[in-house]
Amino acid sequence: MLLEMKSISKSYGTVIANDNVNFDLKKGEVHALIGENGAGKTTLMRILYGMESPTSGEILINGKPVVFQNPTDAIANKIGMVHQHFMLFSSFSIAENIVIGREPKKGVTFNRKQAIEATKALSEKYSMPVDPTKKISECSLGVQQRVEILKVLFQGAEVIILDEPTGVLTPLEVKELLTAIKHLTAQGKSFIIISHKLSEIMEVSDRITVLRDGKITGTVNASETNEEELSKMMVGRELVKLERPEITPGQAIIELNNINLKGNKTKPLLKNINLNVRAGEIVGIAGISGNGQSELLQVISGLVKPDSGELKLQNTNVTGASVKQIRANGLAHIPEDRYLWGVSKDATVADNGIMCHLDSVSSKGVLQQSKIRELVSGWVKHFQIKTGSLQTKAQFLSGGNLQKLIVARELAHGTPFIIAAEPTRGVDVGAMEIIHTELLKRRAENGAVLLVSSELTEIMKLSDRIVVMYEGEIVGELDAKTATEEEISLLMAGGKAGATR
Amino acid sequence: MQHVKDSLKSLIQPLLAILVGLIVGAIAILIVGGNVFETYGALWKGAFGSFYFTMNTFARATPIIIVALGVALAFRAGFFNMGSEGQMVLGALAAALTGLYMPGPGIVKMIAAIIAAIVVGGLWSALAGWLDKRFGMNLLIVTLLLNYIATLFAGYMVAYPFKDRTGSSALSQSVMLDSSVWFPKLFKGMTLHIGFIIAIVATIVLYLFIQHTKKGYEIRMLGGNPFFASYGGVNRGRLMVISMFASGALAGFAGASEVLGSSYRFLDGSLTSANYAWTAIMATLLANSHPIGSAIASILLAALQTGAMGMERNTDIPMEISSIIQAVLILFISAKITIKFIKRKKAGAKDGSNI
Predict the structure, then answer these.
(1) Mean pLDDT, chain B, as a whole number?
(2) Residue B43: CB partners within 8 Å, gap ≥ 6?
(3) In A, which residues are within 8 Å of B6 by CB distance?
C-alpha cells in the first residue's frame, strides 16, 4: 500500500470532524472521497497534507509511519494538493508559477530560460500542454488548474490530492481534466479526488470512499456501484424523487423586448434579447459562462441599465427602474456568485437573512429582534441549515449552507418571478435536493422561474423551455422534453440555430 | 452571549496594539535613561491621578469622541472620510460667527450656533460624497484635500473680515462670545462641560442606530459588501451622501462644542494643532469603527496626551514619549488597513473609497 491513514480522528472542541477514519491508496489508483458538505472530507485531506494535525491516528507511507507538521513535510514525502481555489500569482507567467519555491538559479539570479525549459519538458512528459510564458491572468480556469497540477508534479509529487477539481470548469475542460488524470495514473501517479459530482467520479475513479458526519460509510469499487447507491450512502436515506406535474403555463410574468447592452468592449454584451417567462414555467438558460448570462441577470434585476429595449415585469414597464422598485414589483433573485452578490461575509446569519425583508421585521424603522429570530430560524429549520447560531458570521458557514440560506431568503419573498442563477453550485446532494424541490414547488404554485446554470444536467432536469446564449445573443430555444444534450452543446459552442430548429 | 463574545474578541487587537505601544515606549524611556515604572506612573497620574486630572482628560476627549463617532459612521458605510479636520474647523467657525452675530437670548444663540455648525460641517462633508457619486472623484483624496481649503479659509476669515480688533492681541481670532452662549460646566472650576455628556449620549444613540434600525442595517451592509447591498436594493449614492452628511455634521458639532465649551471664540489653528480630528480617526480605526469602542479609544488616546503633559511636569522624560506610543499604534492600524485594502481589491472592489 502506497499510503495508509489509520484510525484518524480530529475534533475541534466538541465538534468531531473525523471519527476513526481509515483511508488508503494504491499506486496508480484514483481513489475518490465523497460526502456532503461538512462530512469531513476536506479535514481529512488537510491532515494528509500537513495543514492540520490529527487528534489521534497515524499516517503510513510505504508502510512507514510519518508525521507531517506542515505542507512542506507532505511535499517532501511526495504528496501534493491542488486546492479548490487556485493559489497562483496572476501577474506571473505559467513557468514562474510552476517553479516557485524551487526556482532554477544562475548564480544568485533567477534562471528564467531554464524555468521555461523545465516547464516545457514537464508539460510534454505528462501531455498537458501549456504555454510557459503566458501570464496566469490571461489563462482560462482550465489552464490554471493544469498549471496547479504541473506545479505539484514539478515538486515531485507521487500522490496528488484534488479538492473539488471540476467545480469551476466548463464541460469541455472537465473532459480534458479527466483524460489528463487517466494519463497520469498510467504513468504511475496516484490521485485522491474530493468531489460531489457523482458522474465524473464514476467515470474516473477506481475506488470510492464515502464519508458521512465524519465517519466512513463505506469503500466500494467504482465498477461495482452506481450513482443511486452512492447518493444513498452520502445522504443516509433514499433521495426523494422530484415531482414535476404537467402545468399549462399562464401569461408572461417577465418580458424582455429587444434588450441591448453595449458595455465598453467592442462586442456588445447583450444583443437583441427577446425572452419571456410565463407563470408556472421554468425557463433554463444554457451557455458557457461569460456569454452574457451575468449581464442579462443584472439587467433584469436592475443592477445595470440596458442601452435600449424594454423590460416588463407583471405588465409594468420597469426598464431603468431601481433594484428596489423591480423587487417591489415581484422579483426575487438567487445570485450566481454567492460570495460577491449574495452575502456579506462579516455579517451574521441573521443580518444576511433579512436583506430585503426589512419591512416585515421592523416597525417604525427599528428592527425587531424577535421577528428576525422567528423568520430566520424558521428557514434554518426548514432548509436544515447548519449554523452555530443566528449570530454566527456568514463566513463560518460552508458554501452549501450559505446557499441554502440565500435560497430560503429569496424564496420567502413569495414573488411571482424568481431568478435562480447557479442555485446549486458547489452544493452537496442533500442541499441540491432541497433547492430543486423548492424551485419546482414554486413552479407548481404558478411562479415563473428563470434558471441559469452551467450544469447542463440541472438545466435539463428542471426546465420546461431551454434558451441557449452565445456571445450575448440568444442562439436557440428548445423544448426541454425533446432537446438532447448534443443539440444544446452544439448551440453553446456557437453552432447555428437554424440547424436544430 | 455571542454579542458579548464578539465584542470581547474585537477588543484583543486594539489592546495588543496598546500593549506593544507601551513596550516600545518603555524601551525609549530606558534609552533616555528614565525609570519605566516611575514614568508610566507619572503618565497615569497625569491622566487619571485625581478627579481634576480625570475631568481634564475627559474634557480633552470630548471633541475627539464626537469626531470619532462621525468617522465611525462613515467607515461603517464603507466610506473613508478623511476630512474630519476641515469639517470640524468649518463647524467651529460657523458656531463662533453665529454665536456672535445672531440676535436673541443666549440659549437661542447657542442652539443656532450648534445647528449652524452641524449644517456647515455636514454640507462640507456631503460635498465630497456628492463629488464621488456624481463625478467618480476618489472620496479619500477629495476629503483629504478639502481639509486644506477649509482650514485656510477659516484662517482667512478670522485674520481679515472677522478679526478681533478689540484687544491688543495680534492673534488671528474672532471676538470672544458672550458668556450667555457658553456651554455650562459640569463641575465648578473645571474645564469639563456638557459637551461630554452629549458625546456619551451620542455614542449610545449611534450604537443603537447602527445596530438596530433599518438605515443602520443598510449602512452596515453597504460597508460590509457593497455588491450585496446593491443587489438588495440599497441605494449606494444616496446613502453615501446621507452618511457623509451625518459624519461631517458630527465633526462640525465637535467644533461647535470646542468653541462654545472651552475656547469661547474661534482661534485659527487651535483645533488643528491639538490634532483632535486625526486622533479621532486613529481611535476609530483602533476600535474597528464600533461606536462604543471608538469612544473608549478616544478617551484612552486623550489620556495618553494629557498624561504626557503630567509626566513631563514630574519627570525628566519629554512628552514625546507619548508620540512614540501613538506612532506604534498608527503602525498597527496602517498594517490592518493595508491588509483589508488588499483583501477588498482582491475581492474585486474597484472603489478606492471603500475600506
Answers:
(1) 90
(2) B304, B307, B308, B310, B311, B321, B322
(3) 391
A141-154 helix and A171-186 helix, angle to the nearest 10 degrees: 20
Q: Could you tell me the domains of chain B?
A: 35-346 (1.10.3470)
Cell of A267: 462586442
DSSP 8-state assignment for residue A498:
G
Residue to test with chain A: of B212, B219, B231, B290, most A Cβ within 10 A: B231
Q: Which CATH architecture has domain A3-235?
A: 3-Layer(aba) Sandwich (3.40)
User: In the structure grid, which three cell numbers stand for residue B239, read together?
Assistant: 446613502
Of B2, B214, B225, the CB nearest to A344: B225
**Of A165, A187, A196, A160, which is closest to residue A178 (Cα–Cα)?**
A165
Q: Per-residue pLDDT for A406 more than 70?
A: yes
Q: Which CATH superfamily is domain A252-499 in?
A: P-loop containing nucleotide triphosphate hydrolases (3.40.50.300)
- Average pLDDT value over all residues in chain A: 89
Count chain A–chain B contacts defined by CB atoms under 8 A: 71
Contact residues on chain B for A335, CB-CB shorter than 8 A: 231
CB B120 within 8 A of CB B90: yes
**Where do the domains of chain A lie?**
3-235, 252-499
As a whole number of angstroms, the distance between CA A167 and CA A195 comes to 8
The Cα angle at residue B31 between residues B27 and B32, in degrees rounded to 5: 120
Q: Within 13 Å and on the Cβ side, how many CA atoms surround B352? A: 10
Closest CB from A322, A335, A362 relative to B235: A322
Would you state the cell numbers that stand for residue A22, as one nine-digit string? 481509515
Note the residue count of chain A: 501
Q: With contacts defined as CB-CB under 8 Å, which chain B residues touch A369?
A: 212
- Nearest-by-CA chain B residue for A372: B212
Sign of dihedral through CA atoms B5, B11, B13, B15? Answer: negative
| ipTM topping 0.90 | no
Assess whether the region A3-235 and the region A252-499 belong to the same CATH fold: yes
pLDDT tens digit string along A33-89?
998 777 888 889 999 999 989 999 999 999 999 999 999 999 999 999 998 888 899
Nearest CA in chain B to A355: B232
pTM: 0.78
Chain A neighbours among B 207-226 (CB < 8 Å)? 212-215, 217, 220-221, 224-225
Enumerate the residues of chain B whose CB falls inside 8 A of the CB of residue A344: 220-221, 224-225, 228-229
| Nearest-CB residue to B221 (from A322, A355, A389) | A355
* CA dist., res. A57 & res. A84, Å (int): 26
pLDDT in tens, A144-195: 999 999 999 999 999 999 988 887 777 778 888 999 999 999 999 999 999 8
Tell me which residue has cell 518603555. B26
Within an 8 Å CB–CB cutoff, is residue B35 touching chain A?
Answer: no
CB atoms within 10 A of CB A469: 26
* Cα B104 from chain centre: 31
